[in-house]
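job 3f2a | input accepted
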Amino acid sequence: MSASPPRIASLVPSLTELLMALGLREQLVARTGFCIHPAQDVDEIPKVGGTKDVNLAKLKRLAPSHVLVNVDENRLDTVEALREFVPEIVITHPQTPQDNLALLEQMVGLFGHLPGVTERAAALSEQLQQELQACAAQAWPEQRVLYLIWREPWMTGATDTYIARMLAQVNWQTWPQVLGGEHGAARYPALTGNEPWLAGVQRVLLSSEPYSFNASHLPPAQALCPQATVQLVDGELLSWYGPRAGAGLKYLRGLASPQ
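job 3f2a | predicted structure (259 res):
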């Protein structure tokens, strides 16, 4: 272990938020422009482009000892370029809410020697386990769900994405029933709007991100699935891992509970 304090760069918004929640603000030397939470803490941290278009020259000048990346959100060629000047690249790939427990252990393994990190990680882990148990304790009626992340074209998530597995905690089964694989565009299929199975969808969820759906999009989404309940949802709570996972499960239970 190096005697010098780590210099951490995060190229994933949810991981940036996780580092903050673990008390690692002083060690964070770079972030992407999409790393916006918590706003009051990230404002002064240098931005190095986006998740897909990292400014490698600027990042190199910031001399990070660790760079946190994600299989879904960052490009393989970016990671290969980082290997030329970053001592430790931390690859993450949570695919279920439960995987956040392993993610927290991963962070403790890397940074648990710093004050307060282990304790904060334990508190987040306990909160997540409580919410997972609360979901498992209830018998949820199955619903066919279309979770939309984009329009023109409409786009959703495959059944092996984090989003789909999050919704499955309350027995909401996402459609189409296809696997997207470990990475790549197939994980977020586009729709033509003419798929026969759309008629059987019971609930359409319009995510607040990455596309910022609003009330004006409710009618076209309703036309897509005429028999469904259509609603706007907080995409950050449902699709971000890290410190939002426990809160996201609580939010999801609220959406799924009978009114």
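job 3f2a | The chain has two domains: 1-93, 95-259.
job 3f2a | closed
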